[in-house]
Amino acid sequence: MNRARMLLTITGIAAAVLAAGPAPCAELIGRLKYGGGGDWYANPTSLPNLLAFAREHTTLDLPEREATVEPGARDLLGFAFVHATGHGRISFTDEECRNLRAWMLGGGFLHVDDNYGLDEHFRTQVRRIFPDRELVELPHAHSIYRCLFDFPAGLPKIHEHHGGPPHGYGIVHQGRVVLFYSYNTDLGDGWESAEVHDDPEETRLQALRMGANLLVYALSR
User: Fold this and answer.
1) Which residues does residue 109 pair with via DSSP β-bridges, in sequence order?
2) Is the pLDDT of residue 20 over 60?
3) pTM to 2 decimal places
4) Which of 52, 104, 179, 198 is most buried per CB count within 10 Å?
5) Distance of CA 17 to the CA centre of its chain
6) Domain range for residue 73?
7) What is the pLDDT of residues 194-208, one digit of tens each?
8) How many Å apart are CA 9 and CA 49, to the nearest integer?
């Protein structure tokens, strides 16, 4: 091959690579844009901070930030991990319930984090998605609390909304947690940038570590 033809070939390959853009990340991480009027967009710095922490402390192939996905969207099936939070009402249509169920039973993982005020509405909706399964509290010995960082007492307490300890509930399918619900802790607040809530650094670290556990659990099964 002469020099001119070689340069044309190299230029053509480079142009094709640039046109294609960067290689897509292996794992799609989402924020659930649900209906009902609740603030699904709460804690905007939380997931980018968690993803940065997890990239630093694990070998997971993670993006720099999440993508927004709706519960009835066809492309939900491409997401490995989806996070939902908020303070108010959350509701799904029948079609969205079917889509969420199929996605989770097919390998997806949904983390719902009560940002204070979500609990009553979420529990109603989860019964519609999984009428045949119970939302059960996971024992502290569950691998979700041990798969990366060790939490022998279960979920860490990040913010005080109600008295008493935090609780971690799950929907389990064939031995795998497909939905994890963190209640009375507010992990997402702990993932937010330090200046947002002015939490002690150790509190933020505990929240980020638990979030990394959720990612490792979800993406390694």
Assistant:
1) 81
2) no
3) 0.88
4) 179
5) 31
6) 27-219
7) 999 888 999 999 999
8) 42
